[in-house]
Design brief:
The structure holds 2 protein chains of 2 kinds. Chain A has 29 helices and 9 strands. By secondary structure, chain A is mainly alpha-helical. Among the domains of chain A are: 110 residues, no CATH class; 131 residues, no CATH class; 172 residues, Orthogonal Bundle (Arc Repressor Mutant, subunit A), CATH 1.10.10. Chain B has a single domain, classed as Zinc/RING finger domain, C3HC4 (zinc finger) (Herpes Virus-1), CATH 3.30.40. Chain B is 9% helix and 20% strand. In chain B, β2 and β3 form a beta hairpin. Chain B is elongated, with a radius of gyration of 17 Å. The termini of chain B are far apart. Classes of the chains: A mainly alpha, B mainly beta. β2 of chain A pairs antiparallel with β1 of chain B. The structure holds zinc ion (3 copies). Chain A: Belongs to the cullin family. Chain A: InterPro entries: ANAPC2 (IPR044554), ANAPC2_C (IPR014786), Cullin-like_AB (IPR059120), Cullin_homology (IPR016158), Cullin_homology_sf (IPR036317), TPR_ANAPC2 (IPR057975), WH-like_DNA-bd_sf (IPR036388), WH_DNA-bd_sf (IPR036390). Chain A: Keywords: Cell cycle, Cell division, Ligase, Mitosis, Ubl conjugation pathway.
């Protein structure tokens, strides 16, 4: 009747002597007494099981090898079976035995068993069907019931592992579907294995399974959203290649449950990676555009964008070169601001609130929208970008400048692209604001016609773009007079033009444009692209008996232009090895000299002290002061990039932003300008 | 040294030859540049309120009284009853001057 150690032989309860003894006790109604005796013995002997459990658990904790858990379970089951034996007629006591055994042995398990079981169970997953006996044992020992949560955890672990194994960095193909599928598959096999033994497909088990299924799907969504949120920067940057990942996100985020964390993650990324002084404006715009496109998929109603975009928009608004970048890309042929099927939205409509209840896809505003959220008219990318700013005047101005620069740079290439651009922009900004651009383009085509008319189809050295001055960016006058053959070319064109258009006169803007020159020298030929001022200077050197000049004389001969302009043209020719600096005069090099081409400042002034150099540069910049003053008068305040960009229209301007900064700083010290909020403005007198 | 101009891309702007200022003060033409139409107050080199393109599309018209206007502005003016076919500046009967072709 008493439990024995496993290695001792047991007496079969059906042996003849035992049977007799049992009937004797039964007849005298002593079974309850007998049962108490047996249970007492069981409790006493349970110390053996306890010892065994302790030993295996010690091994487990020492080595963390799941075999310890496996052995422990095997071993305890052996005890369980060994002590289960009882005389046949005592079978009604079996229930009591099972309860007692389970309670006792489960009680002696340390907390670390939970983890051990979890890991052990995971090793069984790959060969689940082969483990039928194991699950029977687990159920018999009460493990299935007591640790039911662990069984579920194991399945979740497995799904999580699957996500970690197959999803990170995999953005170019959909993952969600296959994760859901494999989870479903696992679930079916696993739950049948676990619950199938406990109750055979009762209504209860169906319910339990349904509940687990729902939780598992949540779990997949949450994990995938978490993972993708951590990768969101790269996903956005690589969009549209990452479209499948973005679509997965949309499916996962169908429950708005994960939106707050996603939005938080997105904001963090934007703060850390985008809103940084080191970030390139162009990159910020690219990111913003991709972000808009991604979020259109993830959240078509635009709530997330509404929560994430404002800092980016504000940041771009404060970036001095943002307008220019946007305009440049708006007009860039290779730029795909427009997606297929997208419609150009006139910008005037952008700020109007918009609720189209006739739209069959209309949805009420989402719950997390917030009070300031408004369903807005669906905007295309350009409208979205332009709406960063309160007015579109900036864009028109910038467009005009950009177009002016481009048009004056084209030689004889077709204007189709620019024309198409302006047409497209008209749809956006409306006809009126773009009228100036239309006039500029017409000037270009008219000029082509005029040149062809005057020169015929034959190549002619002079091609003149005749512009309608009021419709182009303000051009600062320079008193440059072109010498020699340039003057001859000008005069003959001017006369021809007046004959062609008797009611019009021509006024040269001599500092603009470009000249391709070929210089035939005694020992060499130099072919070079020059500015008109540079061309004028070298033309003077080519006059007879005029191979030596000083700056003052050149200035005078060129119509009284500023010293700085002449100096920088001379520097250009020195750099080309055509002219040599001889102290106070400059000499033409009919024969090349060995030392030519070396940059002059290095030879003349050996690294002047910084202050001296700065002063020198600032001195040279003075010529541009009137331009800067004019700009700041008209536009009140400008960031340095804008000043630099506009100075490009000034004749001969070739300073770097750094040099401009040095100059502005010295002007500030003189009290001429003030610097505030990243922009320069004139000091009030 | 011989300098050969392979290609010179130059820029110029056009200005109406209003006769009066021609050659008179080559240096002062930057100051005189803002001659405006007495009717619409827009520069001659701009265009009248109904036009979009300046220049040949929106030409000038000269009166014998020496006043000059955008042609469209003047025609519109003459079409009104109150004009009495007079020059809006000096109220003399409008007579379009023959455009003297060239110097
Ligand atoms: Zn007018
Ligand atoms: Zn007109
Ligand atoms: Zn008159």
């Amino acid at each position: 009747m008493q439990p024995r150690p496993l290695n001792e032989p047991t007496v079969s309860p059906d042996a003849p002597g035992v049977q007799e003894a049992m009937s004797y006790l039964h007849d005298r109604d002593m079974f309850p007494e007998l049962l108490r005796f047996r249970n007492a013995g069981l409790l006493k002997c349970f110390a053996w099981v306890e010892e065994e459990v302790a030993m295996h658990m010690e091994q487990w904790e020492a080595k963390m090898a799941v075999q310890s858990i496996s052995r422990l379970i095997q071993r305890v089951y052996e005890w369980y079976i060994a002590w289960e034996h009882a005389p046949a007629f005592m079978k009604h006591a079996r229930g009591e035995y099972i309860a007692l055994f389970r309670a006792r042995w489960l009680a002696c398990l340390p907390p670390s068993f939970t983890l051990g079981l979890r890991l052990f169970l995971r090793t069984t997953l790959p060969t689940l069907p082969a483990n039928e006996r194991l699950f029977h044992i687990l159920e018999q020992l009460g493990i299935s019931e007591r640790f039911d949560k662990t069984f579920i955890d194991v399945m979740f672990d497995e799904v999580e592992q699957k996500i970690l194994d197959t999803c990170p960095g995999m953005w170019r193909e959909p993952r969600l579907d296959s994760i859901r599928k494999s989870a479903k598959d696992l679930e079916e096999r696993w739950l049948t294995m676990v619950y199938g033994h406990m109750f055979v497909r009762t209504q209860n088990s169906e319910n339990a399974m349904m509940m687990v299924t729902g939780r598992l799907d949540h779990f997949i969504s949450r994990n995938l959203v978490e993972l993708r949120t951590s990768e969101i920067f790269d996903i956005i940057v690589d969009f549209p290649d990452t479209l499948p990942a973005v679509q997965d996100l949309r499916l996962c985020m169908a429950r708005s449950l994960y939106r707050p964390d996603f939005i938080e993650g997105l904001r963090e990324v934007v703060n850390q990676r985008i809103l940084q002084p080191a970030a390139d404006t162009d990159d910020i715009i690219t990111f913003y555009v991709s972000l808009i496109r991604c979020l259109r998929i993830i959240d078509p109603q635009g709530v997330i964008l509404h929560k994430v975009a404002p800092p980016i928009r504000k940041y771009l608004r404060d970036r001095p070169d943002a307008v220019r970048c946007i305009v440049k890309r708006m007009t860039d042929e290779n730029e795909s601001f427009m997606q297929e099927g997208e419609q150009v939205v006139p910008i005037q409509q952008v700020h109007e609130p918009f609720d189209d209840y006739t739209d069959p896809h209309w949805l009420p505003e989402p719950l997390d929208a917030g009070a300031d959220f408004r369903t807005t008219r669906p905007m295309d990318i350009v409208s979205t970008l332009v709406s960063i700013y309160d007015t579109q005047d900036l864009f028109i101005k910038e467009l005009q400048h950009l177009l002016a620069g481009r048009l004056l740079a084209v030689r004889n290439s077709p204007l189709d692209e620019e024309i198409r651009n302006v047409e497209m922009l008209k749809m956006r900004f409306g006809e009126a604001p773009l009228q100036v651009c239309a006039v500029m383009l017409k000037d270009m085509t008219d000029s082509r016609r005029t040149n062809t008319h005057l020169h015929g189809e034959e190549p002619h050295p002079l091609y003149t773009t005749v512009i309608s001055r009021l419709f182009w960016p303000t051009i600062q006058p320079v008193p440059l007079k072109m010498p020699g053959q340039f003057k001859t070319l000008q005069d003959s064109f001017e006369a021809d033009f007046h004959k062609f258009k008797p009611d019009k006169n021509l006024k040269w803007v001599p500092q603009l444009g470009a000249v391709s020159l070929k210089l035939d020298l005694e020992d060499r030929t130099v072919e070079v692209e020059a500015t008109p001022i540079q061309a004028g200077v070298i033309e003077l050197f080519s006059e007879q008996n005029a191979d030596t000049w000083n700056v003052e004389l050149l200035m005078q001969k060129l119509g009284g232009i500023d010293r700085v302009l002449v100096q920088s043209a001379l520097d250009f020719w020195i750099g080309e090895g055509v002219v040599k600096d001889e102290g106070h005069t400059y000499k033409l090099l009919e024969r090349a000299e060995a030392m030519t081409g070396a940059p002059r400042p290095l030879m003349v002034e050996e690294a002047p002290p910084v202050d001296e150099k700065e002063k020198h540069q600032a001195e040279q910049m003075k010529i541009y002061w009137q331009f800067i003053q004019g700009m700041l008068t008209n536009l009140s305040s400008l960031p340095i990039d804008r000043i630099q960009a506009m100075l490009k229209f000034a004749p001969g301007y070739d300073r770097s932003v750094q040099e401009l900064a040095v100059f502005l700083e010295s002007a500030r010290r003189e009290g001429l300008v003030i610097f505030n909020n990243g922009a320069w403005k004139l000091a009030k007198k | 040294m011989k300098v050969a101009v392979k290609q010179w891309h130059a820029v110029a702007y056009w200005k109406w030859d209003t006769g009066a200022t021609t050659e008179q003060d080559a240096n002062a033409d930057e100051d005189a540049e803002d001659d405006v139409c007495g009717i619409c107050r827009v520069s001659f080199e701009g265009c009248c309120p109904t036009c979009k393109m300046p220049g040949d599309d929106c030409p000038l018209i000269w009166g014998q009284c020496t006043h000059v206007f955008h042609m469209h502005c003047l025609l519109k003016w003459l079409n009104t009853a109150s004009s009495k076919q007079q020059c809006p500046m000096d109220r003399r009967t409008w007579v379009t001057a023959e455009r003297k072709v060239d110097r």
